[in-house]
Design brief:
heterodimer; A: Alpha-Beta Plaits; 8 strands; 36% helix; B: alpha/beta; Nuclear Transport Factor 2, Chain: A; seven-stranded mixed sheet; 3 helices
């Protein structure tokens, strides 16, 4: 039995892709996943399964499609992967955890696209890609920034989903329970 | 106990007014799942003289922490909408405790149904 951290992309935001997490939890449990825990409305799930990662992803995509009629990108991580992502955070410990985002990508972005982005001026905002994970720090908050999940997806030609440091830490805590 | 509401008819006479009524009902019910879809990813919720919450995740986390607080009564006294701004004031009753509130909402645009900023004025700390 393996523990997985499942991140759903772009749900419950701005009236789009509405998935009630309490309903999803019941469906996942009924489907045979063990110890299903959800955290907040942004699509975070910790669960156990005997299936391999790709099977878990496919199973959840299918379930969401069948029950909610939605085509949602699903990211499935192991505890080790999410711990490593936290460990590799390139921003200082002093950065406020609600202003640092850890964004998981479906594939390695094209080096040329990354270079173009690196050359752009974002003022105080910064991004870095470390070991295939994109991190960005918005000292003045998200409301004033160009940087967000959609922006990086468009510029880098990837599918992505991000969480702030507080959420990442919480998910690790839940996965270790 | 099911939430009782006292919401003037005029608060449901346009999509935006209805949205603000629904948002307040969701909050009064302690129902994060009902509130969050009205908010943008970059939502900022400023609670004057208390704290500021930044982003969808932080607001969602806060609302889930206070889900146990379910109001018995929600009274909306007045509501104003104009352009991308809206405001609403009223009263929440939790048992014997009455909490008066005034909230200002900023939408992402004049025609949008997504809120990007809430500023709340509450005389005493709610939770």
């Amino acid at each position: 039995m393996s523990t997985y951290i499942v991140l759903l992309r772009g749900i419950n935001v701005s009236g789009k892709n509405i998935i009630k997490m309490a309903v999803l939890k019941e469906l996942l449990t009924h489907k045979g996943f063990g110890n299903v825990v959800t955290y907040i409305q942004s699509g975070n799930i910790v669960l156990e399964s005997i299936m391999q990662r790709d099977e878990v992803r496919q199973s959840i995509c299918t379930l969401i499609g069948e029950h909610f009629g939605l085509d949602i990108s699903v990211f499935v991580l192991t505890l080790q992967e999410i711990e490593e992502a936290l460990y590799h955070n390139p921003f200082p410990e002093t950065a406020e955890p609600n202003r640092v985002f850890v964004t998981f990508l479906d594939k390695e972005p094209d080096a040329g696209a990354t270079d173009v982005l690196t050359a752009m001026d974002f003022g105080p905002d910064e991004f870095k890609i470390v070991a295939g994970v994109l991190y960005f720090h918005l000292p003045a908050g998200m409301a004033q920034s160009k940087m967000n999940n959609n922006f990086f997806e468009k510029k880098l030609g990837v599918t992505a989903t991000g969480r702030n440091l507080n959420t990442v830490r919480k998910l690790i805590e839940l996965a270790k329970k | 106990m099911k939430l009782k509401t006292d919401i003037p008819e005029m608060c449901n006479d346009s999509p935006r007014r209805k949205l603000i009524s629904e948002l307040n009902i969701g909050f009064a019910e302690g129902n994060a799942a009902k509130v969050m879809p009205f908010l943008s990813d970059a939502i900022v919720w400023e609670m004057a003289n208390d704290k500021v919450l930044y982003g969808f995740e932080e607001v969602s986390d806060f609302l889930e922490q206070i889900e146990k607080y379910k109001a018995d009564l929600l009274v909306i006294r007045s509501m104003v909408t104009h352009g991308k701004m809206a405001a609403c004031n009223g009263l929440l009753k939790y048992g014997d405790k009455e909490v008066h509130f005034a909230d200002f909402y900023e939408f992402t645009s004049a025609g949008s149904a997504t809120i990007k900023k809430i500023t709340s004025y509450i005389p005493s700390k709610l939770f």
